[in-house]
Structure to design on (253 residues):
C-alpha cells in the first residue's frame, strides 16, 4: 500500500466546505483512511447528506461560515473539546461570482474575497496555537489553476492568488514549528460548482482542458491526502497543480 494511503487513525482532520463536491470527496478520502473528521459547511443540508453516506468514521459536523471570525473561533474550540487536537486543516470552502470587471459589484468582490481568502486566513489563525503546541500539523489550501489568471473571474483569481501568497508566507512562518502549509490548484473539476454553469461555459471549460475532459473530485482528494501524509514532510509552501496540464500554457486550437 503506498504511504499516502496509510491509515490515519489517530489523526484529526478539519475540512471546510466539506458538504459537497471536492470537500465531500476529501472527507470520504480521510474517512477511508480512518481519520477523525471535523466537517464544516455553511449549509447544514449539505453536511447532512454527506454524513449519511459516511459509515464508520468518528465525525463532528459544524455548521459555520468561514468568513465569520466568531464562528471560526467557536468551531475550532468545539473540535478541540471533542478530539483534543487537530492534525490537518483543509481550507476548501470557496465560491464564485464570475463577471467581467465592469460588472463585478462591490458585494460580489467582497463576498468572494471574504470566503475564499479571509476564511482561510481566519481558520489558519484559529488552529495555529493548537498546531504550534503540538509541534506538528499540515495545512492544505484549495486554490485554483485560475490563480494564474482568467478572464471574467478577477474577484475569484485575486482571492486564489492571495491564498497562494498566504500559503507561502505561512509556510515560512510555521516551518520552525513543524507545520507544513501547501496548496492544491485544481483545473476544471466536475462538481456542483461547475455543474451550476451554463452548458456553454462548461463546454468552454472542457475545451480549455488539454485532457479534453474535466477532472474528478477524487483527483483533488488524492493530492490533499498526499500533502497531509508523512510522505510530504519536507514539502512546504508549494502549489500542486492538479489540472490535467492546464497550467502549462495555452492550447493551440
Ligand atoms: N470545481 C472546480 O472546477 C474547481 C476548480 C478550481 C478550484 N476549485 C475550488 O475547490 C473548492 C471546492 O469547490 P467545489 O467545486 O467543490 O464547490 P461547491 O460549490 O460544489 O462546494 C463548496 C462547498 O462549500 C460550502 N461553502 C460555501 N461558502 C462557505 C462558507 N462561507 N463557509 C463554509 N462553507 C461554505 C458550500 O456550502 C459547499 O458545500 C473551492 O475552494 C473552489 O474554489 C474548484
Amino acid at each position: 500500500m503506498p504511504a499516502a494511503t496509510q491509515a490515519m487513525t489517530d489523526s484529526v482532520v478539519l475540512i471546510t466546505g466539506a458538504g459537497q463536491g471536492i470537500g465531500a470527496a476529501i472527507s470520504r478520502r480521510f474517512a477511508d483512511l480512518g481519520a477523525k473528521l471535523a466537517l464544516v459547511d455553511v449549509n447544514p443540508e449539505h453536511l447532512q447528506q454527506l454524513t449519511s453516506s459516511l459509515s464508520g468514521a468518528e465525525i463532528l459536523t459544524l455548521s459555520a461560515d468561514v468568513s465569520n471570525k466568531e464562528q471560526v473561533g467557536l468551531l475550532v474550540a468545539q473540535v478541540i473539546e471533542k478530539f483534543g487536537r487537530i492534525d490537518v486543516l483543509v481550507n476548501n470552502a470557496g465560491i464564485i461570482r464570475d463577471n467581467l470587471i465592469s460588472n463585478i459589484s462591490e458585494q460580489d468582490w467582497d463576498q468572494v474575497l471574504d470566503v475564499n481568502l479571509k476564511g482561510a486566513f481566519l481558520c489558519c489563525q484559529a488552529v495555529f496555537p493548537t498546531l504550534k503546541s503540538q509541534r506538528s500539523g499540515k495545512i492544505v489550501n484549495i486554490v485554483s489553476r485560475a490563480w494564474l489568471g482568467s478572464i471574467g473571474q478577477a474577484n475569484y483569481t485575486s482571492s486564489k492568488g492571495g491564498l497562494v501568497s498566504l500559503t507561502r508566507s505561512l509556510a515560512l512562518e510555521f516551518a520552525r514549528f513543524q507545520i507544513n502549509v501547501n496548496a492544491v490548484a485544481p483545473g476544471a473539476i466536475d462538481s456542483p460548482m461547475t455543474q451550476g454553469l451554463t452548458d456553454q461555459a462548461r463546454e468552454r471549460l472542457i475545451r480549455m482542458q488539454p485532457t479534453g475532459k474535466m477532472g474528478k473530485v477524487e483527483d483533488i482528494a488524492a493530492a490533499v491526502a498526499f500533502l497531509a501524509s508523512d510522505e510530504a514532510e519536507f514539502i512546504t509552501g508549494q502549489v500542486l497543480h492538479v489540472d490535467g496540464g492546464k497550467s502549462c500554457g495555452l492550447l493551440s486550437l
About this structure: The domain at 3-243 is CATH 3.40.50.720 (Rossmann fold).
